[in-house]
């Protein structure tokens, strides 16, 4: 997808690559239409008409909440995995590493924050006759073992997540003990542990002494061979068709149970003294080739998706897919390609070409960081748009502030002596679905249509502390961003006159040390009218030598491009933003998103090198994308066009369905990743 | 009447247009001929009637002529090959006509061209002709330059690779074909194609290897050392058996490994057999696959594990195979009969194949392990299915059923229980009445087991006039049938009533008995001797038989002892002699035969302990006390120097022999 959209920018190649886009959307659709068939409520017919009716949107907004949860899980999943490592021993760490690697490889669709995988037997969820050792992987019997009443079981720490698709663990019989009354299987939470697996409701087991399978019953059915010391018994749960089969020494013994309930735990039970078994939840390679079995099911599921029956509606599908592609091209303002595509597929474009070009122009400005011009152009072309959307305007202004800090906004660039037209610090095009560097947020913009919110509260809370450190470092290096000696006093004076001190507090806190400041310029900038100040600044600081490209020379990056006038302009702009925020709050009530946005943006000033600060991500060009798409959506909405391209909606929908399937126990979600269909 | 008229008109019309197409092939203007061929090509695609018409109207020789003319343009020659290829796609009759017009040599000649497009068109047509069952595969081998040329064309394009490998895999039917292809470097030339980017090429190359390796040690031994892109061929095959590969590919790769294993190129305990090939073949038997695949899977699996009990044990517990096979008998299913005629037809067509494959696999599974046999006979309606299988119309099913029965008949327990309960001997006897040799071999072999003395079926079989049948088998041209016939008689005679024994001798006739004793097949000889030995047991029987046939029997014994025979044969013969020596009156036949006594003496001093033991047994019986005339016999043998030999034998290192010698000497002391 990334590649195809990139080539679309090269308009000459546009049409050809849009065909690959078409085939991609075919896949996308097949996913999104197939998945809901598992739920009768979401029959494709009901929401296919996304272009006009809003049912697709409705679903999307319903899913938004859960979506965010899933995302945060993904982003911090690695941290969770690491926290499991509790042993100091390096060999054990090695084993733990291998385990994590294997589990990730086997069950890539499992979100371990929501549904952790079993890694060992639970020391809490066992009968007292069971002893555990060797990191809770070895189980031995320590009861009397006289009658079946002395049977004892232990469950794994967690139930098997449905998103595994196919789950597998093995148990090696270390010793069959006195009679070899061992049972290997599955049980639900709360099933009596003073029993062997299989004897009770929601409990399933395969017993070594007679080779019988026990399906929630005290009497077994002939199933497989007996097993004893030295044998490795595997248990495989297929969460797609809810069956289970066992293996003995790497050989499948065939289906043992069908219609299994969800959320079963791996379970073993022992009954006579001397019985010892070891579990392998992925710590070691399995004897049975489970990955081969999983390959088969992956192929089956994918074939099911590929061969989703469309019956008589083939023509309908084609025109719908063409519409999707066309709307996608229009949405992202690929004019020439959209035109060519519409022509060759005999479609009408619902927007005038001029309008598309206008949007393209604005988008280019946003994506190259020239926010001031972008806002201006928007106001010219769509006069009432930003007035009616104060929150959007505010967001754009905040972005403008960030771009000022970055030194890319047109206003500060002029001050820095660079021609705003000659540079484009953002080389790419909008990256709508997923970019490798930006995985966690992949499809969110299309679900919510708002800016992404990264959880870095901790960073903000620790702000003062961090700031102190940074400050000292900066002093030592002597390259503090403001060189005026008296600025701090001036700012202190200023704060008295300004009622809400958010912006000032950042400045104050950052300037509380003895640093050189150029008070005059600063006060000038504040007191003079904005247009004048702008001009003044330019005249005064044209001699500033460094004018390096932000992207290419990181080490030389300087605040606002290094221009003093630009810094002043920025500070002035910050104040305006501050007051705009207050105004907004008075008019429209509190808005925590806006407040946070502002706070994050202002936080940049607290660091001598904002690019390498904890809030430095805001300066990344990629952060322009959500702003760009939000603005684009707003413009489209005023034209009564969908604010998201239906293609993106379909992708988001499919991703949501998969997440929902995982939660509701449909194992096939394990083998249908949306990413697989975005070539 | 009117209707009939219009049909004729239709035919006339079609023929007229076909005529026109053929006429255009004779146009003096080559450009018009070319256009004519192209039009013909478009007209025949997918139209069997049109194809038949053109063939009848003589288009083929003209097309072949144009194809072979060096004056024809390359384009024209290519189009001719394409049209011929299209005609070959029709019915089997079309193929026959094409072959009769000598299309094969013409096309093979065409392969010598330097034009790749033309070569590909010729190969495509050849492929279509050769994969038809009506084409004699020998036509590929008549010109010895063809195979090397095909090998050299393999590198030209993906198409030539696909067509040539397909031709090879269909035309390699005998060990000779295998050797020809092998000698022309088939392995080295085709191995790289296994990793071709084209699935069709990979698949056809794989099929080639399966036909090349089948029952061919030379090929199989070479294959295990072949590397493809740095990887052993066996590993390439294992990868092709991965469960996400197409079933056809998994199955064919499993066949390759099976054949290599059966040719002893891969050990049966190699993990690629135990953990990959065997499970793959078991999977192929499952219900989710096509009927053809299930048949092939079961047959290949049966072949793989036939000689190895460990594989049989593993397979018997894998994926409920024994129970899974029971499903093979449920076609056509009652559901298919009602709902879907097409499905019913399909099911019916495969029903026989399925049943025989299941029987074969059961036979292989149960050939060694008693527990597995028990598991098989306990499968739902198993014995009933075998019984009805024995009388099915399809020979293949009957043969497989009797093989299965034979395998199960090796179980003492089953002979005593299920075999008797289901009276399997009845259909078996019926089967023996008139059946082809291969069925007879299996059936009579099974009968041998049913006639073992502990088998409860023995009595009813005897009463059904089996002796005559068995005696007639001993006159068969087939050594296997003679063995089985005489073997069954031997089993029957074991501890049998006097009446039965007499009946056997009467029915068989001494002449036939002696013919069998000079049978070129050692097995037949051994079982005949065994029969004699069983006949000559218990004293009254010995005397009676010897009194009527003593002279001939002694003659036969002499002949065998004098001729070149294996130790086992001589031992068996000496045992017969020992039995004769146990008779009351029969003894004299030996005692009065000095020549025979010398022979016994000779064998007592033989280097082989078994023969010494048997000869000593014989002497011991002759000098046994408490019998009439024992004193005289002892004296005679002492005079002949037997006592000295016995003394020597008491010093033997073999405890059995020295014991036997001591017992014999004690007779003198008493």
UniProtKB/TrEMBL annotation, chain A:
Sequence ranges assigned to domain CTLH in this UniProt record: 355-412
Region (Disordered): 413-445, 526-548
InterPro entries named in the record: B30.2/SPRY (IPR001870), B30.2/SPRY_sf (IPR043136), ConA-like_dom_sf (IPR013320), CRA_dom (IPR013144), CTLH/CRA (IPR024964), CTLH_C (IPR006595), LisH (IPR006594), SPRY_dom (IPR003877)
Lineage: Eukaryota, Metazoa, Chordata, Craniata, Vertebrata
A Pfam match: LisH
Entry protein name: RAN binding protein 9
Low complexity composition-biased segments: 434-443
Compositionally biased tracts (Polar residues): 526-540
Domain B30.2/SPRY: 99-286
Protein's organism: Oreochromis niloticus (Nile tilapia)
Signal peptide: none
Similarity field: Belongs to the RANBP9/10 family.
From TrEMBL, chain B:
ARM repeats: 58-94, 508-550
InterPro entries: ARM-like (IPR011989), ARM-type_fold (IPR016024), Armadillo (IPR000225), ARMC8/Vid28 (IPR038739)
GO biological process, one term: proteasome-mediated ubiquitin-dependent protein catabolic process
Organism: Oreochromis aureus
PROSITE patterns assigned to the protein according to its UniProt record, in alphabetical order: ARM_REPEAT
Keyword set, alphabetical order: Cytoplasm, Nucleus, Repeat
Domain of life (superkingdom): Eukaryota
One cellular-component annotation, GO: nucleus
Protein name per its UniProtKB record: Armadillo repeat-containing protein 8
Compartments, record wording: Cytoplasm; Nucleus
Pfam families linked to this entry: Arm
């Amino acid at each position: 997808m990334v590649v195809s959209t990139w080539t679309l920018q090269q308009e000459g190649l546009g049409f050809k690559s849009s065909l690959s886009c078409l085939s991609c959307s075919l896949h996308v659709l097949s996913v999104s239409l197939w998945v809901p068939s598992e739920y009768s409520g979401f029959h494709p017919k009901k929401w296919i008409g996304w272009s006009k009716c809003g049912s697709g949107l409705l679903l999307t907004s319903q899913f938004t909440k859960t979506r965010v949860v899933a995302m945060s899980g993904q982003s911090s999943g690695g941290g969770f995995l690491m926290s499991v490592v509790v042993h100091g021993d390096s060999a054990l760490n090695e084993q733990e590493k291998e385990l994590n690697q294997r589990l990730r490889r086997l069950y890539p669709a499992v979100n371990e924050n929501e549904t952790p995988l079993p890694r060992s037997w639970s020391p809490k969820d066992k009968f007292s006759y069971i002893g555990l050792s060797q990191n809770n992987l070895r189980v031995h019997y320590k009861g009397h073992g006289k009658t079946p009443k002395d049977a004892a079981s232990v469950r794994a720490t967690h139930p098997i997540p449905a998103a595994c698709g196919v789950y597998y663990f093995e148990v090696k019989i270390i010793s069959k003990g006195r009679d070899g009354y061992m049972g290997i299987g599955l049980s639900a939470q709360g099933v009596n542990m003073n029993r062997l697996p299989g004897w009770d409701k929601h409990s399933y087991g395969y017993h070594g002494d007679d080779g019988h399978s026990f399906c929630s019953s005290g009497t077994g059915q002939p199933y497989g061979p007996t097993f004893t010391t030295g044998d490795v018994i595997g248990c495989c749960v297929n969460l797609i068709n809810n069956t289970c089969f066992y293996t003995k020494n790497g050989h499948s013994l065939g289906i043992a149970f069908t219609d299994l309930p969800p959320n079963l735990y791996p379970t073993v039970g022992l009954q006579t003294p001397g019985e010892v078994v070891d579990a392998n939840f992925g710590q070691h390679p399995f004897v049975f080739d489970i990955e081969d079995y999983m390959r088969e099911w992956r192929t089956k599921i994918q074939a099911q998706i590929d061969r989703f029956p469309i019956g008589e509606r083939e023509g309908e599908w084609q025109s719908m897919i063409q519409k999707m592609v066309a709307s996608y091209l229009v949405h992202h303002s690929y004019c020439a390609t959209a035109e060519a595509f519409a022509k060759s597929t005999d479609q009408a474009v619902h927007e005038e070409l001029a309008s598309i070009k206008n949007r393209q122009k604005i988008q280019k400005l946003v994506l190259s960081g020239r926010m001031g011009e972008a806002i201006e152009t928007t106001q010219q072309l769509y006069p009432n748009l930003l007035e009616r959307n104060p929150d959007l305007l505010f967001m754009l202004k905040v972005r403008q502030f960030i771009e000022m800090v970055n030194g890319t906004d047109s206003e500060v660039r002029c001050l820095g002596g660079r021609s705003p037209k000659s540079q484009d610090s953002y080389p790419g095009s909008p990256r709508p679905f997923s970019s490798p560097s930006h995985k966690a947020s992949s499809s969110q913009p299309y679900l919510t249509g708002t800016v992404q919110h990264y959880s870095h509260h901790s960073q903000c809370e620790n702000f003062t502390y961090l700031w102190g450190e940074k400050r000292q470092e900066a002093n030592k290096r002597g390259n503090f961003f403001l060189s005026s000696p008296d600025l701090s006093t001036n700012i202190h004076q200023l704060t008295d006159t300004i009622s809400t001190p958010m912006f000032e507090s950042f400045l104050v806190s950052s300037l509380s040390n003895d640093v050189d400041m150029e008070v005059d310029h600063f006060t000038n900038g504040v007191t003079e009218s904005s247009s004048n100040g702008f001009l003044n600044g330019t005249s005064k600081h044209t001699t500033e030598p460094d004018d390096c490209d932000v992207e290419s020379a990181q080490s030389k990056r300087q605040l606002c491009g290094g221009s003093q006038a630009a810094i002043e302009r920025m500070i002035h702009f910050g104040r305006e933003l501050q007051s705009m925020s207050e105004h907004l709050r008075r008019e429209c009530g509190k808005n925590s998103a806006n407040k946070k946005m502002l706070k994050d943006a202002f936080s940049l000033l607290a660091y001598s090198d904002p690019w390498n600060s904890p809030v430095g991500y805001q300066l990344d060009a990629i952060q322009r994308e959500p702003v760009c798409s939000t603005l684009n959506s707003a413009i489209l909405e005023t034209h009564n066009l969908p604010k998201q391209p239906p293609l993106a909606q379909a992708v988001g929908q499919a991703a949501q369905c998969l997440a929902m399937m995982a939660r509701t126990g449909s194992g096939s979600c394990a083998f249908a990743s949306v990413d697989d269909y975005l070539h | 009447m009117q209707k009939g008229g219009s049909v004729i008109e239709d035919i006339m019309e079609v023929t007229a247009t076909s005529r026109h197409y053929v006429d255009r092939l004779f146009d003096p203007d080559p450009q018009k001929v070319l256009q004519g061929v192209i039009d013909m090509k478009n007209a025949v695609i997918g139209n069997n009637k049109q194809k038949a018409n053109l063939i009848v109207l003589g288009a083929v020789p003209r097309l072949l002529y144009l194809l072979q003319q060096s004056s024809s343009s390359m384009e024209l020659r290519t189009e001719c090959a394409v049209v011929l290829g299209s005609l070959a796609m029709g019915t089997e009759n079309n193929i026959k006509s094409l072959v009769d017009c000598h299309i094969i040599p013409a096309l093979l000649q065409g392969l010598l061209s330097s034009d790749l497009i033309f070569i590909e068109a010729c190969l495509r047509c050849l492929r279509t002709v050769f994969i038809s069952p009506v084409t004699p595969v020998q036509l590929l081998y008549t010109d010895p330059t063809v195979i090397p040329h095909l090998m050299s064309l393999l590198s030209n394009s993906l198409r030539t690779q696909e067509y040539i490998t397909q031709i090879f895999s269909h035309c390699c039917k005998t060990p000779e074909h295998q050797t020809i292809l092998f000698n022309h470097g088939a392995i080295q030339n085709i191995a790289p194609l296994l990793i071709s980017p084209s699935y069709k090429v990979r698949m056809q190359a794989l099929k080639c290897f399966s036909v090349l390796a089948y029952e061919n040690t030379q090929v199989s031994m070479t294959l295990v050392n072949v590397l493809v892109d740095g990887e052993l061929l066996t590993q390439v095959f294992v990868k092709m058996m991965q469960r996400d590969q197409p079933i056809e590919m998994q199955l064919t790769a499993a066949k390759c490994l099976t054949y290599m294993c059966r040719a002893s190129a891969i050990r049966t305990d190699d993990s690629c057999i135990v953990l990959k090939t065997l499970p793959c073949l078991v999977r192929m038997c499952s219900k989710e696959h096509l009927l053809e695949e299930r048949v092939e899977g079961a047959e290949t699996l049966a072949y793989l594990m036939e000689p190895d009990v460990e594989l049989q044990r593993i397979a018997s517990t894998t994926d409920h195979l024994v129970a899974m096979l029971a499903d093979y008998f449920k076609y056509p299913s009652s559901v298919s009969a009602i709902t879907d005629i097409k499905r019913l037809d399909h099911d019916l067509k495969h029903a026989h194949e399925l049943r025989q494959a299941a029987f074969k696999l059961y036979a292989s599974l149960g050939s060694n392990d008693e527990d597995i046999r028990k598991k098989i006979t306990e499968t739902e309606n198993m014995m009933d299915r075998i019984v009805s299988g024995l009388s099915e119309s399809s020979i293949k099913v009957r043969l497989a059923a009797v093989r299965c029965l034979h395998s199960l008949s090796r179980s003492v327990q089953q002979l005593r229980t299920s075999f008797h309960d289901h009276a399997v001997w009845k259909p078996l006897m019926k089967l023996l009445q008139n059946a082809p040799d291969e069925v007879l071999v299996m059936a009579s072999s099974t009968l041998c087991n049913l006639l073992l003395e502990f088998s409860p079926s023995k009595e009813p079989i005897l009463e059904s006039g089996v002796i005559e049948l068995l005696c007639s088998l001993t006159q068969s041209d087939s050594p296997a049938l003679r063995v089985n016939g005489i073997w069954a008689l031997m089993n029957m005679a074991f501890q049998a009533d006097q009446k039965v024994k007499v009946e056997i001798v009467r029915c068989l006739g001494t002449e036939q008995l002696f013919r069998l004793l000079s049978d070129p097949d050692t097995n037949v000889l051994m079982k005949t001797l065994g029969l004699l030995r069983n006949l000559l047991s218990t004293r009254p029987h010995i005397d009676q038989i010897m009194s009527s046939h003593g002279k001939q029997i002694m003659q036969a014994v002499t002949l065998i002892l004098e001729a070149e025979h294996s130790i086992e044969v001589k031992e068996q013969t000496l045992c017969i002699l020992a039995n004769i020596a146990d008779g009351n009156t029969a003894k004299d036949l030996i005692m009065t035969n000095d020549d025979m006594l010398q022979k016994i003496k000779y064998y007592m001093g033989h280097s082989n302990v078994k023969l010494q033991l048997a000869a000593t047994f014989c002497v011991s019986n002759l000098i046994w006390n408490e019998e009439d005339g024992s004193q005289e016999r002892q004296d005679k043998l002492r005079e002949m120097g037997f006592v000295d030999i016995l003394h020597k034998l008491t010093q033997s290192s073999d405890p059995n022999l020295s014991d036997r010698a001591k017992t014999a000497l004690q007779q003198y002391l008493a």
